[in-house]
Write a structure and sequence with these properties.
- The chain has 432 residues and is an alpha+beta fold.
- Helices cover 27% and strands 25% of the residues.
- It contains 13 helices and 22 strands.
- The mean pLDDT is 93.
- The structure holds flavin-adenine dinucleotide.
- Flavin-adenine dinucleotide binds next to β4, α3 and β11.
């Protein structure tokens, strides 16, 4: 079948196998020349694409739960959405969640995803206690921070390149309510936004929507959104009313004028400097989950996500340069998001490091690709890197400079029989 990531480029022909038991998964692994695991396909680029794709989605059982400690064991194909439906009414929440709930637990581990609480909670793997893996030679191995720790660390953030994650043990966090207390702060420019992040570092969740087309003194103007789990309110999950985008939109619909108009309206929707509010956790964490197939808004050519992180020391200057370059090019995005990460971890390919991170989406055009090359150079010059799960285009050289521990990953792959495990991305990035 034709298959792509969430950005809908590239699109390739792939054989997709969806084994429902370990025995069948093992047979499929033995029979395939080159394969990669796949969850819900929410990575944007080509990290879950290969000639043979092994879907983990039918490995979808909840295996054990301790309601004293919040320790959960589940198969890798379970979605975060399912976990929320089951556990929020019981007073438990994900310790870390990305901006969509339509992500598998295996995918969350493989990308070592981060959420709005990275500065306090770290990334997803910080809450993972252990993994059950199927290796390329058919062996099933349990790994954690003490047993086969090299495999554990390389798998968290390892983009499926060490083996197939079969099951995950993780710890959920307690909540008293399904509701969030929110505060939205208006920042006049990038310096103001970064200072506000700093001043409000005690907030559990923080993220800023940024107008990436604003220039001059308004460069980086943003709305900083803070959140706390509310102590009051019921624990009920909502029944979602999911609308869908029925057709591919004309590719030109999202252009500099429509994006500029949207950004201006959005920024000025709040007049006061600070506004408090309350929101159910669903719209707070997953604003786009209510619109199924929103990725079709970019039309047939698809779109490119770009997420970079810069180290704290050079972050302010580097972010200014990135935003100036984007605003000058006039290629804005609706979904420009800024966040300050806390410290990184010890996984060789995990993305976060302490410093600001910027995520944007762009139309997939030759002009944008040329712009992104220029952004790559700025990111590398400032000691930063790009997020693998969003990437469809970076060069092997850019990858290796951004992830200097890539060779460790290659060694773990050799030790654990991963020769036949490869994605289009891992080949492009020349990961041996
Ligand atoms: C709207 C939206 C918002 C997002 N927001 C965030 C965010 O805030 N923070 C963030 O960090 N990410 C974010 N993401 C990215 C998303 O969280 C990751 O791409 C995640 O990995 C997707 O999981 P998936 O199940 O769809 O995996 P897929 O896209 O299917 O696969 C992603 C990678 O995981 C590997 N993989 C999947 N399952 C397994 C398995 N069982 N065993 C081994 N490897 C496996 C694949 O090989 C591939 O390399 C967002 C994505 C979208 C579409």
């Amino acid at each position: 079948m034709k298959l792509s990531g969430w950005g809908r480029c590239p699109v390739v022909e792939a054989q997709v196998l969806a084994p429902d038991t370990l025995a069948v998964m093992r047979r499929d692994v033995a029979d395939s020349d080159a394969f990669i695991a796949r969850g819900l396909g929410r990575s944007y680029g080509d990290s879950a694409l290969a000639p043979v794709v092994l879907s983990a989605l039918r490995l979808d059982r909840l295996l054990a739960f301790d309601d004293e400690t919040g320790e959960l064991e589940c198969e890798a194909g379970v979605s975060l959405d399912t976990l929320l439906k089951v556990f929020v009414p019981k007073g438990w929440f994900l310790p870390v969640t990305p901006g969509t709930s339509f992500v598998s637990v295996g995918g969350a581990v493989a990308s070592d995803v981060h959420g709005k609480n990275h500065h306090g909670a770290g990334s997803f793997s910080a809450h993972v206690l252990g993994l059950k893996m199927l290796l390329g030679n058919g062996e099933v191995l349990d790994c954690d921070r003490t047993s086969h720790a090299d495999l554990f660390r390389a798998t968290c953030g390892g983009m499926g390149l060490t083996g197939i994650i079969l099951a995950v043990r993780l710890r959920l966090q307690r909540i008293a309510s399904a509701w969030m207390r929110t505060t939205t702060l208006k920042a006049n420019n990038l310096d103001d936004a970064l200072d506000l992040f700093e001043a409000r570092r005690d907030a559990t969740y923080s993220v800023a929507w940024i107008d990436c087309l604003a220039r001059g003194r308004a460069l980086g103007r943003s709305l900083l959104m803070l959140g706390e789990h509310d102590a009051k309110g019921e624990l009920a999950d909502t029944a979602d009313h999911i609308r869908s985008v029925p057709v591919d939109f004309p590719a030109g619909l999202l252009n500099r004028y429509s994006v500029a108009a949207f950004n201006t309206l959005y920024y000025h929707r709040q007049l006061r400097r600070e506004v408090d509010g309350r929101s159910h956790f669903r719209p707070y964490f997953y604003p786009l989950d209510g619109i199924r197939d929103w990725n079709r808004l970019y039309g047939k050519p698809g779109f490119l996500q770009y997420q970079c992180v810069l180290p704290a020391q050079s972050g302010r200057e580097g972010m200014k340069l990135l935003l100036e370059t984007i605003a000058q090019a006039g290629e804005g995005s609706f979904l420009a998001v800024l966040k300050i990460f806390g410290p990184g971890n010890d996984n060789p390919l995990s993305f976060p490091m302490a410093g600001p991170t910027l995520a944007l989406d762009f139309r997939n055009t030759p002009k944008v690709r040329e712009l992104l090359e220029r952004l790559d150079a700025i990111v590398l010059d400032h000691g930063g890197r790009l997020y693998l799960t969003k990437d469809a285009r970076m060069s092997a050289a850019t990858f290796k400079r951004g992830y200097p521990r890539w060779e460790e990953m290659a060694q773990v792959r050799t030790r654990h029989h991963a020769e036949r495990i490869a994605s289009l991305q891992s080949r492009r990035l020349e990961i041996p």
